[in-house]
Design a protein that fits this description.
This protein is α+β, with helices and mostly antiparallel strands. The protein folds into two domains: 2-59, Ribosomal Protein L9, domain 1, CATH 3.40.5.10; 65-146, Ribosomal Protein L9, domain 2 (Roll). Helix content is 36%, strand content 31%. The protein has three helices and nine strands. The protein has helices at 23-30, 41-73, 95-106; strands at residues 2-5, 18-20, 36-38, 76-80, 88-93, 115-116, 121-123, 125-134, 137-146. Strands 4-9-8-6 form a four-stranded mixed sheet. It has a three-stranded antiparallel sheet with strand order 2-1-3, covered by helices on one side. A two-stranded antiparallel sheet has the order 5-7. The longest helix has 33 residues, at 41-73. The N and C termini lie far apart (70 Å).
Length: 147
């Protein structure tokens, strides 16, 4: 029997796949538990519509991320903090601090988890901070730490 999977099933396939399984497995396990639907023309058409809608939404999210990356590339964030001798900071600047400053100064909201900092900033100066906004969409933000 040919079925459309509603969820990932180890050894059978991933959600959305159209697979051939034994009749007993489909009738006794997959369909009663709601893990699969029989692959009728109507169900296959519905699956294609859902996949097309997901692809459209994915393209819209990627376009929005690319637009945001372009905005971020053109701005500089200035963070003022206390520093001691030799330009060493009392504390450090974290990804949350960078995210908050970006939102306050330029009204651009970016989740702190998307900001990729190997280590927090612990000195005065200008730093390039990388951001992964979406898969294959990266941006670089200039952060200036001053006294």
């Amino acid at each position: 029997m040919i079925v459309i999977l509603n969820r990932d099933i180890k050894g059978t396939g991933k959600a959305g796949d159209v697979v051939k399984v034994s009749d007993g497995y489909a009738r006794n396990m997959l369909i009663p538990k709601g893990w699969a639907l029989e692959a009728t023309k109507g169900n296959i058409n519905t699956l294609e519509k859902v996949k097309a809608k997901k692809a459209e939404e994915e393209a819209a999210r990627k376009a929005a991320a690319e637009e945001l990356a372009e905005k971020i590339g053109n701005v500089e964030v200035v963070i003022k903090t206390k520093a001691g001798e030799g330009g060493r900071l009392f504390g450090s600047i974290t990804s949350k601090d960078v995210s908050d400053a970006l939102e306050q100064q330029h009204q651009i909201k970016v989740d702190k988890k998307k900001i990729q900092m190997a280590q927090p900033i612990k000195a005065l100066g200008t730093f390039d901070v990388k951001m992964k906004l979406y898969s294959e969409v990266n941006a670089t933000l200039t952060v200036k730490v001053t006294d």
